[in-house]
Amino acid sequence: MDFTGGTIDDVTVIRLHKYMDERGCLVETMRIDMLPEGLRPEMSYVSYTEPGIGRGPHEHRYQTDIFSFIGPGNFKVYLWDDRKGSSSFGRRMIFYAGEDAPLSLVVPPGIIHGYRNISKTCRGMVINYPDKLYAGRDKKEEVDEIRHEDEKDFFFKEFVSI
After folding, report:
1. How many CA atoms, within 13 angstroms, populate the side-chain half-sphere of residue 99?
2. What value, to the nearest 5°, has the Cα angle with vertex 131 and ends 31 and 111?
């Protein structure tokens, strides 16, 4: 499938602000009043990604991810709408996020997503506040993740060719 550029329904991009003074800086990465109505995080985790390395692409059946890219590091972020019933089906969004462009991003179920650390030497940090527990309560459930990295007919060429 060929995806075209454009906005994707139900994806929320929140530009963040760094408040700086002589002590350093502060960034509000997630506030309940920034999120779509009814969305509530269930957990939080931080991941670090080495320079040049990508994570994804994958999607979730039920989980919404709430990513915060504030640095260190910068990322190229990719989203693909493969939801057959969506009015933005077949669209992709590509943008930059991280230390130089801090933002939080709400990625609903069914949106394929991936990101790559484009920093030359800096390990990149991403915070996620998903609305579902990884592998359910006490990690006793199936993981809600559909991985696309190893597909033979890989239509995410732009992501893997960075």
Report:
1. 11
2. 100
CA distance 65 to 30: 12
Contact 156, 114 (CB under 8 A): yes
**11, 106 contact by CB (below 8 A):** yes
Q: pLDDT tens, 35-67?
A: 999 999 999 999 999 999 999 899 999 999 999
* Cα separation, 113 vs 79, whole angstroms: 5
Contact present, 52 and 160 (Cβ < 8 Å): no
Q: Are 73 and 98 in contact (CB under 8 A)?
A: yes
User: Quick check: 57 and 82 in contact, CB under 8 A?
Assistant: no
CB proximity list for 149: less than 8 A, separation 6 or greater: 56, 57, 58
